[in-house]
Structure to design on (260 residues):
């Protein structure tokens, strides 16, 4: 595939007004197996840990579950569920960085077990790293103890690799967390659960043009977009999607940058 030329982005970014948790389309209950990656070297463990990830902190005035950021600004957040072949994941990050964009990665704990060097890759690129449960199961349907173990199990992996539990928690196989899962996430150290208001549907492998069209039709200032590593459609869609955002005067930033 071809890669996009670097896109000029403004350095002066405006923050907007208050936030709400208006949430729309749902996250798929079951994802297809990610496509095999193009030829590339797999990530290998690094001998030393990356710089510590920022620790979660409560953001005054924001709800326990956040679906989007300020609607009056010029920022959006692209978020990626972290699993699948690390070569594709690294290629997605490279495309974002080529366009001077930063993203948020919600990693599955077992994926970090298999590819621990991805923690360094994500943080060294200036991106957010967060928690998407240990096994990517339907966390809302689990008993309390099992759900808590899914959250803390992934948190433990992130802490071991980065020195903190990561910046955000997003429940797996759902767009919105149940009140119980919100409470469990807070008990585990995440003051806010991160949802989204735009679902790219990239995990359905609709083709890159469809991914771009779906996001472009729904995204607006403050949007949090749900995307996934491990799919070629996502990789191919990212350069034209970032170009579309740039033409609309929107800048892709991390969720931390969007919300603080």
């Amino acid at each position: 595939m071809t890669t996009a030329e670097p896109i000029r982005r403004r350095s002066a970014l405006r923050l907007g007004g208050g936030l709400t948790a208006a949430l729309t389309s749902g996250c798929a209950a079951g994802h297809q197996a990610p496509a095999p990656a193009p030829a590339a070297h797999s990530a290998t463990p690094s001998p030393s840990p990356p710089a510590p990830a920022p620790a979660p902190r409560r953001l005054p005035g924001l709800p326990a579950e956040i679906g989007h950021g300020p609607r009056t600004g010029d920022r959006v957040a692209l978020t990626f569920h972290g699993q699948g072949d690390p070569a594709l994941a690294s290629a997605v990050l490279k495309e974002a960085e080529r366009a001077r964009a930063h993203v948020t990665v919600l990693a599955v704990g077992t994926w970090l077990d298999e590819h621990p060097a991805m923690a360094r890759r994500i943080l060294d690129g200036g991106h957010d790293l967060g928690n998407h449960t240990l096994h990517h199961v339907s966390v809302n349907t689990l008993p309390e103890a099992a759900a808590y173990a899914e959250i803390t199990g992934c948190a433990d992996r992130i802490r071991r690799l980065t020195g903190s539990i990561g910046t955000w928690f997003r429940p797996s196989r759902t767009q919105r967390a149940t009140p119980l899962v919100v409470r469990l996430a807070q008990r585990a150290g995440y003051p806010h659960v991160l949802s989204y208001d735009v679902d790219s549907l990239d995990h359905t492998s609709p083709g890159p043009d469809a991914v771009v069209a779906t996001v472009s039709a729904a995204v607006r200032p403050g949007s949090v977009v749900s995307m996934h590593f491990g799919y070629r459609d996502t990789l191919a869609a990212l350069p034209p999607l970032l170009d579309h955002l740039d033409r609309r005067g929107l800048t892709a930033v991390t969720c931390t940058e969007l919300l603080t």
Observations:
- The chain has a mean pLDDT of 86.
- The first strand starts at residue 65 and ends at 66.
